[in-house]
Every structure is written in structure tokens, then in C-alpha cells.
Design a protein that fits this description.
The protein has 165 residues and is an alpha+beta fold. Helices cover 52% and strands 25% of the residues. A four-stranded antiparallel β-sheet has the order 1-2-3-4.
């Protein structure tokens, strides 16, 4: 009986301790502190020279992702490409984003020029699913419309999602 009681106590203690592991580090350390340990470990090395050369795009990229993180979908939608906006209305766009993972922060790593109007920004994302924090790199396509860059989603993939509903 004594062993059974010990097992129950351990299970209860674990049940109380696990939620403490899901601390939101953005509130503790701020956005800059969020990346410090990861960069120190060498997992993510932003190409500072490349990013500086593409300063206007990087500024736009950061504005877009800050809007997504803050769930300011109107601001983010306004930064989507004209072609995308013609195919996907704001209500559908916002609904899809609301159901996504909880993105905590995004940081650009490098910019790759595809052609004179299109670029890909390789980024690093920190996100949370339930109590599990995770991170990954991803490629984000941008297109120049007039003098400004706009975020370019895959409209064919979006059309498939729309037809599935």
C-alpha cells in the first residue's frame, strides 16, 4: 500500500509540474532575448550583410510577421499580394489564420533573389502547440508590386483548401 501511495504522489506532482514547463519566454525575456540562446548554440545564423542589403524588404517582412503574431489580420491581409487578395477574401483569410498554430516570434535569416520581382526570405519561427514549444526554419515568398514588397501565398494551394470546404 505504501508503494501505491508513493506512485500516486509522484503522478500528482508530475501533473502539477508539467504546466510550469510551458512558460512563455517572450514575456520574460522580450523578443530579443528569445533568440539569444538559439544563436549562441549556432542553430540559426542570420546573414547580417545580406539582410542589411535588403533592409526595406526585411522591414516589411518584420511588420507582416509582427501583425500575424499579434493576430492583427487586417494589417497582415493588406500586405498580401494583390493576386492573393483577388482569390481569397479577408473573412476566409482571417478564419484560416485563427485556426493555426500559436506563432510566438519570427526572425529573418537571409534573402534569396529569384528574379527581378520575386524573392524568398528564409526565416526562423518559434511556435507553440498546446504546451510544446518548437522552432523551425521556413521559406517565405515575397513579390514586388510597384515600389513595395507584398507577401505571396500559394494561391493554387489556397484554392484547393477553399474547394475542400
Amino acid at each position: 500500500m505504501n508503494i501505491l501511495l508513493r506512485i500516486i504522489v509522484v503522478i500528482i506532482c508530475l501533473g502539477l509540474a508539467i504546466p510550469l514547463l510551458a512558460v512563455d519566454h517572450t514575456k520574460i525575456a522580450g523578443q530579443e532575448g528569445l533568440w539569444k540562446d538559439i544563436k549562441k548554440e549556432g542553430h540559426v545564423k542570420p546573414d547580417k550583410e545580406n539582410l542589411e542589403k535588403n533592409k526595406d524588404l526585411v522591414t516589411r517582412y518584420n511588420e507582416y510577421w509582427k501583425a500575424i503574431v499579434a493576430r492583427d489580420y487586417k494589417k497582415a491581409y493588406a500586405m498580401e499580394s494583390t493576386d492573393y487578395q483577388k482569390k481569397v477574401g479577408y473573412d476566409l483569410y482571417a478564419e484560416r489564420l485563427k485556426n493555426r498554430i500559436n506563432i510566438k516570434a519570427v526572425e529573418p535569416i537571409e534573402v534569396k533573389q529569384l528574379n527581378e520581382k520575386e524573392v524568398v526570405v528564409r526565416g526562423f519561427m518559434r511556435y507553440q502547440i498546446e504546451i510544446i514549444d518548437s522552432m523551425r526554419t521556413f521559406d517565405d515568398k515575397w513579390i514586388k508590386e510597384g515600389e513595395r514588397f507584398k507577401h505571396q501565398r500559394d494561391t493554387e494551394e489556397e484554392a484547393k483548401k477553399s474547394s475542400e470546404k
